[in-house]
Amino acid sequence: MIGAAPAPAGPRAARIPALAWGLGALALCAVVLSPVVALVLAAGEGLGDAASGALWPHLLAHVLPRALRDTGLLLAGTGALVIVLGAGSAWLVAAYAFPGRRLLEAALLLPMAVPTYIVAFAYLDLMHPIGPVQTTLRDLLGYARPRDLALPDIRSLPGCILLLGFVLYPYVYLPTRALFLMQAANLIEASRMLGRSPSATFLRVALPMARPAIALGASLALMEALNDIGAAEFLGVRTLTVQVYATWINRSDLAGAAQIALVMLMAVAALVALERWARAGRGFAGTAQRPRGLARRRLAGPRGWIALALGLVPVAIGFLIPASYLAHSAARRVMRHGLPETILSEIGHTLLYAGAATGIAAALGFLVAAGPRLVARRFGLALIRVASLGYALPGAILAIGLLGPLALADSALSAGMTQVFGAAPALIGLGTGGALVTAYLLRFLAVSIGTCEAGLGRLPRSLPDAGRMLGHGPGATLRRVQLPLAWPAVLSGALLVFVDCVKELPTTLLLRPLNVETLATHLYGEAARGTYEDGSVAALLIVAVGLVPVVILLRLGTLQEPRDQRLTGPRPSP
């Protein structure tokens, strides 16, 4: 009959994509969990091996105590600094109105564009005894020799804490500012009407309500600090991540590196547990009505300019100073010697590996996020949690854990190909770009899943029912209806994954193929040799790519505020 709707898909036809998705989900869970299982097995085998077993007492006596101490102090100091900077700046732009506030709101995100190892790279050259800062100070004060005027050495644990804190505070600033703007203004205004000072209102009312957001942001910042290898090694801090790299590369002891990585895994579990404890039962429940925006206090005259200057301090230290210095150094390097000879091949390698991981992560992220719509909801949500575990693993742990599974996969493939074709193929996993792409995929798949899940969550719940009435099964509805509507979220997630892959250093250092350099590893090598100007071009390119997530956050309206946001105090006359 002309115009009649097609018959609905039968239960057997609808069951086929769900079964395929379920089998693929189980395979993905096995791949995601394999590094952790392999890490535990490698560490256990090392304890039973004579050579590695003899090394363990040395690690326990001389390596782990300092690594645990430095890691603990680094995380404690960085955590305190990111909370102070993130929560303080969030309250400044959410509770006060002053000249330049809107520009400051966006500028406070800029340090997210600069990886921690690039900030350390820039400040090491800036603050060197014969660098521009100390040289200029000696010229101004009339000193002739570097030893006549020596500033505190930035190559220290306090220096590392300072730099990491000023780079990672946006992880706390972003969710805390959003919570300050979304929470009901009644309690804060009641505190003001009762005569509480602005500082007392912040400490006793606003800060306790923002504790869940602060705990979430601080845990993410500490994960990044624990994953860092470049800044810590450049600044002389022997963290667990640095010791994993040194034990594997310098001492050629995989079992010892696995044992240290296992200690790191326990530290990650402790961070996750601490974050869950800090957020448990501490939420803020509002009314069913739309909450009124927080009324801002107007700061006029000198007080407003002082507030703007205070807000620009973390922006300047975390982004403006290192980015400006990198731009100047890169321009000077290009004018004197031209572009580095290897920069084009390094850009190609970076685009190749990051692009391959991004394409796979975008496809898998969308399929995993759609799981609750294809199969049982509980099974789909469980897969989302398992597939997102890789983001909690520092790059060094993931790299060590992937060695065993990749070697087994290569052996199985070689045996199968030999049995069928009589010849074994070249390696496609361990020692090749495939290992690096796999590591990128497992580490940043959670980013793609999160954005795709948010995009699908905004679609009407009636779409699957409408697709079934038109004769389409869940898979066809997802492909023909939901994917075209959710593609902005898929694209945003892919861009974020690409940026993370470009900036990732520990995983790239440990798993890159032989004689292959990316922008990140090239910069690491130049910093290790002390040839900072030669690495400035690669550093500037990475910073330029790192600006992408900041632009995405602005384009997606993350910094948009409620329309009913109000001001208190006298308004300026027109």
Explain this structure to me?
With 574 residues, the chain is mostly helical. The protein has a domain of 241 residues: MetI-like fold (Orthogonal Bundle). It is 74% helix and 1% strand. It has 24 helices and three strands. A three-stranded parallel sheet has the order 1-2-3. Helix 1 crosses helix 18. It starts with 10 loop residues before the first helix and ends in a 6-residue tail after the last strand.
Task: Name some characteristics of this structure.
1% strand, single chain, disordered C terminus, mainly alpha, MetI-like fold, 3-stranded parallel sheet, 3 strands, 574 residues, disordered N terminus
What is the overall number of helices? Answer: 24
Low-confidence stretches: 1-14, 563-574
Name of the top-level CATH class of one domain:
Mainly Alpha
Helix percentage? over 70%
Specify the biggest β-sheet.
3 strands, parallel
Structural class: mainly alpha
How much strand content do the residues show? Answer: under 5%
**Within the CATH hierarchy, at the fold level, what is the topology of one domain?**
MetI-like fold
